[in-house]
Design goal:
This protein is α/β, with parallel strands linked by helices. It binds adenosine-5'-triphosphate. Adenosine-5'-triphosphate (ATP) binds next to strand 16, strand 22 and strand 23.
């Protein structure tokens, strides 16, 4: 099959091999890339395949709970030995059902043991595990399935099944659909149990033969980008990308082997969740609990209290939601309780500000504040045994970080992308700075390309976590990974004298005005949000235009079932309205008229933000309030809550044109 000879790695007794290769990137399904093995330190760690990693975990932690899921009100546990056995059984089923090497298994559903088992079974069988966002439209599902020539779809339930049925006729490679919850009611769709029964009947021969031929420098997983900047691309991750990244992060963050507890609730099709919930626990022999499907609609808080994870990663929106809830409680607190909380928060903030200066001493009164306030709050949040609190996948506002610091929750940032198998830099309690994405993870390398006089340039990443390329996209691969193997992130940033990375913009989002001025919108948008707490989203417009304008959305309540924004203003927004002399309760009330107090207060906020602008071209001249907040179902936000600027521009093109009418 391959022209180059296959050799066994000198490090391993198992079936793992490295196929000799000269290229550092590929876009071909059966492509191989050169491993970037270092001479010493983390980058010299022996490479292992994903199947070997799971096998080792099963040997080392046979009776430790690997996966815990609540079914009919009871936690059901799967040990590492059972996990490994079930993955092998499902891999045999996939082979029997016709999965060929280098073909996709698309997984569409909420986080569950079946999701993990299907993912790893695809890898064991020599296919590509491809998580698909549950928020995808049928057309977006089709795009991904065609790209990876998916032969198997594993779907959660009837709702997700319907999407696949809608596009089935246009998927020439499709062989079977498996449904992992509920009884399938559609002919030809296999239940999870039937697929497992089929796998159990098969001999081990074909699976073992595929495992023997597998190489650590071949692709085994595809991460589809969420499409903030264009149609999803299939990021090819090799065994080494995944297992090395898990290793590097467990070592860097001092993971406690066999003892760590994780809670899986972020979309698994995103690289951050896959690394944090699937690979890191497997490497550390940790236990992964699954949240309920309605986690983000409200049940997450209760599950957190039950599970009490030892490490916790949320996207900024998750932390913002906790913040908003706590602020609401705070507003109702009065008298002595309020005074104690205010006093303790000042101490918490001071303790964490000291840590930023590498001073780990505690301010006077800390132990009392800890006993009567911090410990209690952490217990209420289910974060009392957590030692690493992370926010990642998008920038988080410094005010949110500082709020958690005041509760003695040292929330820090992690930064990376699908193309870097997730994490590249991380802030941790022992070394962090507010506003920074943290320090480069040992074994990874950061280069700032073409820095300006302030040191800002494109952030480039190097190391064994850099992906192989984009499946079947030669041009895009060459745009992203240069000839030396540096991944060009499209992010603008600088590294300070202590090695901390600060992300200051995104090239992909840069606004170039008609006057030729380059403007990074995020800083301006963040300034606006800081001035106007009633704003949930601000999107700057100005590319090839004469001046800047901004689309604003107000903070509103959400329909918890559908995720759609409602017309009613959130409690925080109503508070702000009252503070500026308005009694508005809905967007309609704000816009009808429009409400003069609110309009004046927003204009004042914009004027204040404009004062921070370094040049005239960076001042906002016109603005409007969009009658509906941005949302995932509305299409303006991606699954990790990142703003899809091109969608917003298209959707509100008439509003935008009105800004620039002569
Ligand atoms: N801590 C952070 N601070 C600032 N930006 C971040 C942080 N973490 C991630 N990002 C942003 O997210 C990008 C990576 O996005 P990711 O690979 O998760 O993609 P995606 O949403 O699927 O992709 P795409 O935007 O290409 O559709 C980074 O390049 C960076 O712009």
């Amino acid at each position: 099959m391959f022209k180059s000879p296959i050799k066994k790695t000198e490090y391993l007794n198992g079936p793992d091999q490295i196929i000799p290769a000269d290229c550092i990137k590929t876009w071909k399904p059966n492509g191989v890339t050169k491993l970037k093995l270092g001479e010493q330190g983390p980058s010299a760690h022996p490479p292992v395949s994903v199947p070997t990693l799971l096998k080792k975990a099963a040997e080392k932690y046979p009776n430790t709970h690997a996966l815990c899921v609540k079914r009919n009100g009871e936690w059901k546990n799967t040990t590492y030995r059972e996990y490994y056995d079930q993955v092998r059984i499902m891999a045999k089923a996939f082979i029997k059902l016709g999965l060929d090497l280098y073909h996709g298994v698309c997984i569409l559903g909420f986080n569950s043991p079946e999701w993990f088992i299907a993912d790893l079974a695809a890898v064991f069988a020599g296919g590509f595990a491809a998580g698909i966002y549950t928020t995808n439209t049928p057309e977006a599902c089709e795009h991904c399935a065609l790209n990876c020539e998916a032969q198997i779809w594993v779907v959660e339930d009837q709702k997700q099944l319907e999407k696949v049925l809608k596009i089935k006729g246009r998927l020439p490679s499709l062989k079977i659909i498996i449904q992992y919850t509920g009884k399938p009611t559609v002919d030809g769709v296999l239940s999870w149990e039937s697929a497992m029964a089929l796998g159990k009947q098969q001999s081990d021969n074909e699976l073992d033969s595929r495992l023997r031929r597998m190489a650590v420098n071949q692709a085994c997983t595809l991460i589809y980008t969420s499409g903030t900047t264009g149609p999803p691309k299939g990021v090819m991750l090799s065994h080494d990308n995944l297992t090395w990244t898990a290793h590097a992060n467990c070592v860097n963050a001092d993971f406690n082997p066999g003892k760590e507890i994780f809670l899986s609730f972020l979309p698994l099709s995103h690289v951050a969740a896959q690394m944090a919930d699937l690979y890191i626990p497997m490497y550390a022999g940790g236990t992964c609990y699954f949240a309920l499907p309605d986690a983000l609609k409200g049940s997450l808080g209760q599950t957190l209290k039950e599970v009490r994870p030892t490490r916790f990663l949320g996207v900024p929106r998750v932390w913002e939601k906790i913040y908003e809830k706590m602020m609401e409680v705070g507003r109702k607190t009065t008298g002595i309780k309020k005074s104690i909380a205010t006093w303790a928060k000042a101490i918490g903030l001071e303790a964490n500000m000291r840590k930023q200066r590498q001073d780990f001493s505690k301010p006077f009164g800390y132990s009392v504040a800890n006993a009567i306030v911090f410990k209690k709050i952490k217990a209420v949040l289910g974060l009392d045994r957590c030692t690493l609190y992370l926010s990642g996948a998008a920038p988080i506002a410094p005010e949110i970080l500082r709020y958690f610091h005041s509760l003695d929750i040292p929330l820090t940032e992690i930064y990376g992308m699908s193309e870097s198998t997730g994490p590249h830099t991380i802030g941790m309690e022992k070394a962090f700075k507010v506003g920074s994405a943290g320090l480069t993870i040992p074994g990874c390398y950061t280069k700032i390309d073409k820095p300006d006089e302030e040191g800002n340039g494109e952030v480039c990443m190097g190391g064994r976590h850099v992906s192989m390329g984009y499946l079947r996209m030669e041009e895009k691969t060459n745009e992203a990974i240069d000839g030396e193997g540096w991944l060009h992130t499209g992010d603008i940033g600088r590294v300070d004298s202590d090695g901390f990375l600060f992300i200051t913009g995104r090239i992909k989002e840069l606004i170039i005005t008609a006057g030729g001025e380059n403007i990074a919108p995020v800083l301006i948008e963040d300034n606006l949000k800081a001035e106007l707490p009633c704003i949930s989203n601000a999107m700057l417009i100005g590319d090839r235009r004469k001046f800047l304008s901004v689309l604003l959305t107000l903070k509103t309540n959400m329909n918890l079932d559908t995720g759609e924004p409602l017309d009613t203003l959130s409690a925080a927004c109503m508070d702000w309205c009252r503070s500026v002399g308005s009694s508005a309760k809905t967007i309609q009330e704000v816009l009808a008229g429009p409400d003069a107090n609110i309009m004046r207060a927003i204009q004042d906020g914009i004027d204040r933000a404009n004062k921070l602008a370094p040049s005239n071209a960076q001042r906002i001249q016109k603005w409007t309030i969009i009658p509906r907040d941005f949302s995932v179902p509305g299409g303006e936000l991606g699954p990790t809550m990142k703003l899809k600027r091109p969608v917003v521009v298209q959707k509100y093109c008439e509003t935008i044109e009105r800004f620039y009418e002569a």
